[in-house]
Amino acid sequence: MTDSTTLGLVGGLLQAVVIVAGAPLLVGLMRQVRARMEGRVGAGITQPWRDLRKQFRKEPITPRGTSEVFRAAPVAMVAITLVVAAIAPFVTAASPLPGVADLFVVVALLATGTVAIALAGIDTGTAFGGMGASRETTILALVEPTALVAIFALSVRAGSTNLSAIVDSTLAEPSAVLSPAALLAAAALVLVIVAETGRLPVDNPATHLELTMVHEAMVLEYAGPDLALIELGSAMRSAVYLGLLANLFVPWGIATEAGVLALLVGVVAFVVKVGVLGAALAAAEVFLAKVRLFRVPELLAGSFLLALLAVTASYVLA
Amino acid sequence: MNTVEVALGCAAGSALLAVLAALVVRRRARPAVVGTLTAITGAAGVVAGAAALLGERFAVELPWIVPLSGIALTVDGLGAAFLAVSGAVAVAAAIYGIGYSHHGLDSRGVQATFPLFVLSLLLVPAAGSITTFLVCWELMALTSLVLVVSEHRRRAEVASAARWYAVMTHLGFVAVLIGLLILSAPADGDTFAAVRAAAADLSPAVAGTAFVLCLAGFGSKSGIVPLHAWLPRAHPEAPSHVSALMSAAMVNLGVYGIVRVGFDLLAVDAERWWWLLVLVLGAISAGYGILQAVVSTDLKRLLAHSTTENMGLVLVGVGASGLFASIGSPVLAALALTAALMHVVGHAAFKTLLFLAAGSVLHATGTRDLDSLGGLRTGMPLTTAAFGLGALAASALPPGTAFVSEWVLLQSLIHGLPAPDAAPAAAPTVTVVVLPLAVAVVALTAGLAVVTFVKAFGVGFLARPRSDAAAHAIESPATMLAGMGLAAVAATVLAVAPTLVLPTLGRVAAGLVGSPAPIADAVSVELVGVTGLLSPVLVVVALVVAAVLVVAIPRVLAGRRARREARLWDCGGGPLSPRTEYTATSFAEPLQRVFDTVLQPVQDVDVTHHQESRYLIAAVEYRRRVPDRIERHLYEPVLSFVTRWGRAGRALATGSVHRYLGYGLCTLCALMLLLVLA
Amino acid sequence: MLGLWRRIRRLGRIAEPAPEPPSTDRPDAAEQLGGSVQIRHVDAGSCNGCEIEIGAAFGPVHDGERYGARLVASPRHADALIVTGAVTRNMTEPLRRTYEAVPRPRMVVAVGDCARNCGVFAGAYGVTGPVSAVVPVDLEVPGCPPRPEAIVAALRTLTGR
Amino acid sequence: MSDTAYVQLLNLTAGAVLLCAVLVLWRRELAVIIRLFAAQGVALAALIAVLAWHEGSPELAVLAAGVAVLRAGVLPAVLRRALGTAREGTEPVREVRPVVNVAASLLAAALLTLLAFAVSRPIVELAPSPATQAVPIGMAVVLIGFFVLVTRRRAVSHLVGFLLMDNGITAVGFLTTAGIGLIVEVGVALDVLLALLVLQVLTGRMREAFGNTDLDELRELHD
């Protein structure tokens, strides 16, 4: 058993635990930041965990006329996100499953999670479920090109789409982070993340008005443990996306050799990075309003342009 | 006496036996006998292909069959791949057909044509000479045409669809004919070997013309934009197992033709612009096809459009491969070509599955309109499972069949760009400009495919039935389920263990472009020459483990209350009627709005008022159509032109015999004059 | 944007300091919730006076969320219903169905005099009766309309924070 | 200054110039567009300053200062005045409905950038140096400016488009012939000012004539 494999296994397990435990806290942190900037006190960053604990204890409800798809979707979504949380380089650069830690695979896996929830939304047969599914998949389809071209821009430098390889190449030459290519790609990926995690200005996670919902509309039928899984899953998605953004561009602190201290530093660095990113995102949201659904394509076209510029910039500006 | 020869012999024999049986066996037993024999034909084809892929070579000349040139059969690696695919699709379709044929498809003609169609599908990739190829090609076109019209008594649309198909496929045939004749003219003999030998001293102009003609002909066969117009008409109207054969096996042969001509016959004088053309056509087809699929509400039409999309992706791979070969990086060329071949195989598997499932929906409900389907999962669980599997495979999501091939394709595209600090010569401007756009197109296609199949599966099979037919649907007979089962197994195997075929296809591709094999023989997909590693089986295992954890841990930690059934949350109002559900049309509406500059949908709203007061509305009617723009702007002018000339020509034919004889005389004199002058 | 930022800096915290936690005894369902109560609001026929006060209770000044209460969009997500107004005939069945849609353990808070005893609408022809006549009520908030402080106090009784 | 730092700074400033052009295409509010144009002026000046620093030539530094004053100070001020007078009028101060919708024009900008790259690749390979490597960005800015000129309806955004083209030309000029751009720059600046004044007068006249500056109104003059 080589050194990197042990590092991969231990680190993978560790970072999965960290993400599952920390994702609700991240959501709590973001709510707290918003509350403070709106002059409120806020419920404290542990509130999401209280909500989850309560919902796990509540009674599960099966709406009549829904099928296994409806019941399986939350499990599938959380499971997929858990896999990503275990394999992508968050705490350690080495991955437990190198054959899965590929940027395409990760992006596609997260998309699969979205699809599971969308199918569940359709399966309820309510108008809101279908509406949410339709909007969510539309946004998903329009985000895909941006995501993949941005990946392209990142992987050209590393010569591979393997996440560990990209992280290592960034660690090898830190100056590349300040290159226009990297910055443009980062900007594009930020927009991708905003769209995929359903934050403002694409979707308002705190809305009560069904007609403006995207993600919420699909999960209106879930109750108790199923709902808890959904909320945990979407919290983990945000954590995973932010973690990817952080470590693809600012990987420093990530554990590269096995060792308790290295892993500890890795965990701390990861938590700090994601926390800062999340707080920044939440703070930015205070200044934003939700754009109309049919203005979203403009936003995504812009991000696609940024990604494409990132690719060409890496050739134009040697 | 090698396996390929024996297997091909068995295939031909059982096919002819099937034709005979179709003519003599009485109606009730006919589908079973014909289906079984045709399945044997397909299986023999698979065996032949597999044997040839494993290295057996086979060539035979049968001068006595066709006068003048005779028949020459040669099975090499490339042909073998397509042979095996056609055979496999045929097995599933034939078994399925046994149950499917019982409503009106068991007439002698149809039953006798089906085995011939299968046989032609097996012989086209096995053809070793241009004459043989053209003969089999035409046989394939005619038999498929007969099968397309086989339901014309039941539906009026079939006739027009068949007309479109007949015209386009024969124009395509003419193009291929001219192209191949140009190639065979300088060669001695018309075997592929001779043509290959003679191709070296073709002038670039001639070679280019020949290639473009073949591209047009073969492209129209695989539904490449702008020659796709027949495909979304003919494929839906054909009986579903025939649709499967056409959409999963026949279209592949167009790709086969392009690869055969471009990489094999004309390999020596292939030029970069050929492959750029192929790449661009492929990208356009992929994007346009999937856009049409997203907005179409007819289940089988949706699948047909998605066929155009997938063939487009294959051509993107082929074009990229040629491009890489032309800039001198054979490893990437082999990789891209492998991706294309793998996508052909995967597409064959899941498109068969999807068409067969759609057929069993049609069989059970009598409708293909997604807007009136829904809730089929209760009535036909197995079909639902089959279609769900196919949808997952088609939407390029892990763990799905198409994901593997698209991953390999993307890998080749991405590694096509060398590191930025490499010498400019290593990265010609064209690649730096084209590759990112190609990646973007593939990505957009993947995204839209997700929407398409979420729509098809979710709206068509989940939720609540939108019509009585859908509410009372019952599961299909066992043979149909068996056909679907075979396709489902194939799709699953290809998704989880793609390395059963990938390295072999890699060797085929490598042999064509002259490079080392691009994919290592391992459990996980491991690229050779460039870094890239994907192991689908690990993805599956990881997902299963994670799912178990996710189910188990909360139960252990938080206990569990009893599940309660409750009425759907209808905001406290009355029970929701199916009319409040999202339909396929409404599901695709946002995308249609986003892309309305491309699609230009036609929609109109009529409001009928009460006669008492214009403020009271009696009814609101909303109609929306998404006409095919390319068709409107490319085909209709041509058609109107042709009809105009037809009208003009009618003036010549007054019906008087003397005038007709006069025409004859004039022609005769004109010819003699010509002879005198010459 | 900068202007908004400056205003945020200038205003700082608007919320008033938390008053003493209420001493009223909690319904035992509330004990199982552990400091997190998600609330679905149902207007069973109110004059919207109570709605305004509920809005105020979740506004920045009183900030009901700081005690772990949150308004949600669907009764499936909810632990408690806040019902306002005398239950009209047309809202009787919807109210019952909404209650059925809430997963157990569940509670009902009747906010305002109308919800408690139909207030001035008692005996009106369109009124079925008070909320307690349709669904079991766990907690009542008097007042017409009740002050936001009272509503916040009721929420704190549920969350126990 | 160290070579890598020079390259980094050069690239960053060039990237900023391009980014401003793209954002002009993205945003609708005319005020924001003008601010973006000013930002681009700053970036351009910074670019020239970096060149000056690297070459250690004082006149380049002077030019950088001049560019900063003109592109980031004077021209935006003039534009704002035009906008201010527009505000007093009844017309909206946003690019309400461009000829090509925003999403499409962003994709068009992407293609234009690729085109610029493809076109200027040979030029770059004549004398590959960090400065010339950035030439395609100047080209792209020129093309995007032209695109703005073509597809935007409001006179002010037309002016901005025109000025974007000019910025792009200036950038190309400095990146290729660093140092002797003085005469070029002065001449360009002068005729820009001239054109700007002309258009300024035109917009004034138009507002008097039609009450707003939607250039489609000019069709009226045709007959």
From TrEMBL, chain D:
GO CC term, one of those recorded: plasma membrane
Major site of localization recorded for this protein: membrane
Alphabetized UniProt keyword annotations: Cell membrane, Membrane, Transmembrane, Transmembrane helix
Transmembrane segments: 6-26, 33-54, 60-79, 99-119, 131-149, 156-176, 182-202
Location(s), subcellular: Cell membrane
Membrane topology summary: Multi-pass membrane protein
UniProt keyword annotation of Transmembrane present: yes
Name under which the protein is recorded: Hydrogenase-4 component E
Source organism: Pseudonocardia thermophila
Top-level taxonomy: Bacteria, Bacillati, Actinomycetota, Actinomycetes, Pseudonocardiales
